[in-house]
Every structure is written in structure tokens, then in C-alpha cells.
């Protein structure tokens, strides 16, 4: 089984990215041939500063390794080190109906928030399809927000196969872990870089605490009982706590007598402790930047050789 996933270097890694994609992907590296990549072509749709892009890419490589990506098990590479993927994207574009892309929520959502409506942003799902299809991927671990793009990938692959030959491209299956499919941000909307509501994994401790203190709550007074079910504090806490710990926190909400500040402090300590080991590994890796470069170099070589083989088959099929 081949597993594939990617993440854009368009900002700092946040809890949504980690729980929705990175952690499940890393767990899956034991179950098949894993291909994980830094989606730098994709991030050109939103990241316009070259220095920022370079720095985010470097950070993401360290993040992945610190979080447990094992280069002995997974092929880890930069998307732009496999330029064949852009050739496949063009070929896929030629079988993709405009209507299919026009229906994509992500484009409408991003342009409604002021991101320039470039052709790249519109055609993003086609490049994503190429990313997946060029490696004959079976399984794609992603968050809920990518479900529609996976459906588009399957539609495009089917159209390509209908035109050029059955079985040419493999139809992938998404793997969406229900508990972490849409991690809420500070304001309860989906945690997202472009909503400015993220909690970043590698934020310094003081900044992390400050962020958590900004989680939106209602104005119930300290002494009054509080509803745990609608609380974003509880929603985030349960992602890191045991069932018993979550039940105990909910009881404290219902009992009254404690303010939201206390509960935020409990959440802060939980997150801080949960990531203590990962943060330490990240610091060690920062001092050995060549390690990540080496891993990416080897990964690019392996990924590119697979992509080239696919493209030989595809180029012949379209009549080149
Ligand atoms: N809040 C989230 N909950 C669960 N999964 C999430 N993902 C992102 N946010 C959440 C998953 O992270 C992976 C990487 O996605 P990406 O590189 O496309 O980043 P993104 O979706 O663009 O992340 P953002 O922060 O949401 O960025 P913008 O602001 O650009 O939309 C994907 O698998 C995604 O599902």
C-alpha cells in the first residue's frame, strides 16, 4: 500500500495540521510505503515572499522529523524537486471540466477572504490530483477540509482513464480521522493559518500560553456553572487528554466556582507537556540543519524516479 500526503510551507505548523494530517501520516508510515512532501508549488498560491517560503520550508522539514517522520520508513521530499508533477498537472487539466473546479469550496472561501483569485489558486485541486496520482497512491491521510479535493482527484483520474485507458491512474482513498477531522481554532472556526486563529506547535512557551488565553469564551461569571459541551477549551483539551481527564474537566465546568482563565491554564499545561519531547527533538534538529537537507535530498531522488516511471507510461498513453 502506498500512502501519500503533503503540507504547504505557508506558515507555522499548527495543531490542526498536526492532528489532522501529520500525526496520522506518521502513524501510517509503519503500514505501507509512505511518501510525504513539502508542498512548495502549492504555497505559491498564497506565499509571495521568497525568503518566507524558504524559511517555512526549512521549518516544515524540521517539524516533520521532530514529530517522528522516520526517513528509514518514509520517502520525504520537496514537491518542487519533482517537476514532473507539473507536467502531469497540465495533462490532467486537459481532462478536467471547469465546472468541477468551480464547485470547489476552498477557492471560493479563500477568494472571499481577500486572497487573489489567480489561476494557480483556481487550479490548485488539479496540481493536488497530480501529486497523488503520480505516485500511484492508495491512501491519503488528510483533514476534513481536503475531502472535496480528494473527490475531485478521483473524478479527474476516472476521466483520464476513460479517455486514455482503463487502470492508467489509480483512484486513491482519503483517510480522515474523525476525532481530528476539523480541529477548532481560538475562535471555534476551523483552525487555519489564513483565519489567524491558530495555536502553533513550536511557539515559545510564553507565547503559547498567551495564545491559549485568547480562546473565545462566553461571559459566564466565575462562580456560575458552565456548559462544557460548547466550549472550545474542552474541544481542544479532549484531543490530548484521556476520557477520564476530559470527564473530570467537564465536571469542573458544571460545578461552577472556577473561571475560564483556570481552564485555559489547564489546557496550556496539557499541550505544553504533550509536546515537550517533540519540542526537545526539534531544538536538537535545529542545530544540525544538514540532517534535514540530507533526508530531503535522498527523498527527492527516490520520489523523482517513481514519478519519471509514471510519466513514461502517461506520456505514451496520451500520444507523445
Ligand atoms: N483545523 C484543521 N483540522 C484538521 N486538519 C487540518 N488541516 C489543516 N487545518 C486543519 C490539514 O492539514 C493538512 C495540511 O494542509 P495544508 O498544507 O493545505 O494547509 P491548509 O489546509 O492550507 O492549512 P490551513 O492552516 O488551513 O491553511 P489555509 O489558511 O491556507 O487554509 C491537510 O491535510 C489539512 O486537511
Describe the model.
- The two termini are 30 Å apart.
- This protein has two domains: 2-183 and 289-318, Rossmann fold (3-Layer(aba) Sandwich); 203-274, Tyrosyl-Transfer RNA Synthetase, CATH 1.10.240.10.
- It contains 14 helices and five strands.
- The strands form two sheets. Strands 1-2-3 form a three-stranded parallel beta sheet. Strands 4-5 form a two-stranded parallel ribbon.
- Helix 1 (15-28) links the parallel strand 1 (2-7) and strand 2.
- It is mainly α and 320 residues long.
- The site of adenosine-5'-tetraphosphate (AQP) has 21 residues, from helix 1.
List its traits.
Rossmann fold, 5 strands, binds adenosine-5'-tetraphosphate, 14 helices, mainly alpha, 2 domains, single chain, globular, two-stranded parallel ribbon
Set down the secondary structure blueprint:
Blueprint: E1 2-7, H1 15-28, E2 33-38, H2 40-43, H3 50-66, E3 74-78, H4 84-93, H5 98-102, H6 105-112, H7 119-133, E4 139-141, H8 147-164, E5 173-175, H9 205-212, H10 232-237, H11 243-255, H12 260-274, H13 276-286, H14 289-318
Parallel strand pairs: 1-2, 2-3, 4-5
Helix pairs in contact: 3-13, 3-14, 4-7, 4-14, 7-8, 9-12
The structure holds adenosine-5'-tetraphosphate.
Adenosine-5'-tetraphosphate binds at residues 7-8, 10, 16-17, 20-21, 39, 46, 142-143, 145-146, 180, 182-183, 190-194.
Amino acid at each position: 500500500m502506498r500512502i501519500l500526503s503533503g503540507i504547504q510551507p505557508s506558515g507555522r505548523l499548527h495543531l490542526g495540521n498536526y492532528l489532522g494530517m501529520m500525526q496520522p501520516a506518521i502513524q501510517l508510515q509503519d503500514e505501507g510505503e509512505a511518501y510525504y512532501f513539502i508542498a512548495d508549488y502549492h504555497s505559491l498560491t498564497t506565499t509571495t515572499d521568497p525568503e518566507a517560503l524558504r524559511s517555512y520550508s526549512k521549518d516544515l522539514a524540521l517539524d516533520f522529523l521532530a514529530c517522528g517522520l522516520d526517513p528509514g520508513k518514509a520517502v520525504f521530499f520537496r514537491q518542487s524537486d519533482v517537476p514532473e508533477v507539473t507536467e502531469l498537472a497540465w495533462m490532467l487539466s486537459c481532462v478536467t471540466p471547469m465546472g468541477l473546479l468551480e464547485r470547489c469550496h476552498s477557492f471560493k472561501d479563500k477568494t472571499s477572504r481577500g486572497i487573489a483569485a489567480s489561476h494557480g489558486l483556481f487550479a490548485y485541486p488539479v496540481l493536488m490530483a497530480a501529486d497523488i496520482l503520480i505516485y500511484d497512491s492508495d491512501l491519503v491521510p488528510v483533514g476534513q477540509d481536503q475531502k472535496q479535493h480528494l473527490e475531485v482527484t478521483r473524478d479527474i483520474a476516472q476521466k483520464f482513464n476513460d479517455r486514455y485507458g482503463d487502470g492508467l491512474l489509480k483512484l486513491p482513498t482519503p483517510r480522515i480521522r474523525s476525532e481530528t477531522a476539523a480541529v477548532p481554532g481560538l475562535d471555534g472556526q476551523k483552525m487555519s493559518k489564513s483565519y489567524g486563529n491558530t495555536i502553533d506547535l513550536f511557539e515559545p512557551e510564553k507565547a503559547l500560553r498567551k495564545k491559549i488565553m485568547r480562546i473565545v469564551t462566553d461571559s459566564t461569571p466565575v462562580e456560575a456553572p458552565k456548559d462544557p459541551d460548547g466550549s472550545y477549551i474542552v474541544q481542544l483539551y479532549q484531543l490530548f487528554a484521556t476520557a477520564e481527564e476530559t470527564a473530570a474537566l467537564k465536571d469542573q465546568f458544571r460545578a461552577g466556582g472556577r473561571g475560564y482563565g483556570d481552564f485555559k491554564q489547564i489546557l496550556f499545561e496539557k499541550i505544553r507537556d504533550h509536546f515537550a519531547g517533540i519540542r526537545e527533538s526539534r531544538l536538537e534538529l535545529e542545530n544540525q540543519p544538514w540532517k534535514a537537507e540530507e533526508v530531503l535530498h535522498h527523498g527527492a531522488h527516490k520520489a523523482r524516479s517513481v514519478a519519471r516511471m509514471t510519466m513514461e507510461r502517461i506520456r505514451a498513453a496520451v500520444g507523445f
